[in-house]
Design a protein that fits this description.
Elements lengths: L10 H13 L10 E5 L5 E6 L30 H8 L9 E6 L3 H10 L3 E6 L6 H13 L2 E4 L12
Parallel strand pairs: 3-4, 4-5
Antiparallel strand pairs: 1-2, 1-3
């Protein structure tokens, strides 16, 4: 009789994988970000990715990064973290953990804090040192939200669908 399989993925790998997979749903041509909210007993509560709000056609709103405010995506796109928070229909998110592929901006940080999420595990800190990033970390520190850089195991996880 053989023992159990030893090469299974960790919880962090699993949830960051789910967040990354959610990000693949984004139609943004430049940045695909995914988020996954998890309970303290490792149950997925909600997911989100960056895109336009429901009912706003991604064929009728701009995806551009440059131009006037109303000519770019920035006035219209909802970030993955906020989508994951808004997609949750189960009540309180107090004490939960958020896995996200890109460190949250200051606007998402506010929503994360207000939702009661206590831990953020992020894969990339691409905008480290920018005003929005510094503001996020300052608010997280003040509100007692722990943020942890995802530690990649180094192994490739292949998904066949």
């Amino acid at each position: 009789m053989g023992g159990k399989r030893e090469d299974y993925i960790s919880w962090d790998e699993y949830f960051m994988g789910v967040a990354s997979l959610a990000g693949m749903r984004s139609k943004d041509p430049n940045t695909q970000v995914g988020a996954c909210i998890v309970s303290d007993d490792n149950k997925i509560l909600s997911m989100g990715y960056n895109g336009f709000p429901s009912g706003c056609s991604d064929d009728e709103f701009p995806w551009e990064r440059d131009g006037g405010m109303l000519e770019t995506k920035y006035a219209f796109v909802t970030h993955s973290e906020l989508n994951a928070i808004l997609n949750y229909r189960g009540g309180s998110l107090e004490g939960t953990k958020l896995y996200v592929s890109l460190f949250p901006c200051n606007e998402c940080a506010k929503a994360i804090i207000q939702a009661g999420i206590k831990t953020v595990v992020y894969k990339s800190d691409k905008y480290k040192g920018t005003p929005a990033n510094v503001a996020s970390k300052r608010m997280f520190d003040a509100a007692g939200v722990e943020y942890i850089k995802y530690s990649r195991s180094g192994r490739d996880i292949k998904l066949e669908v």
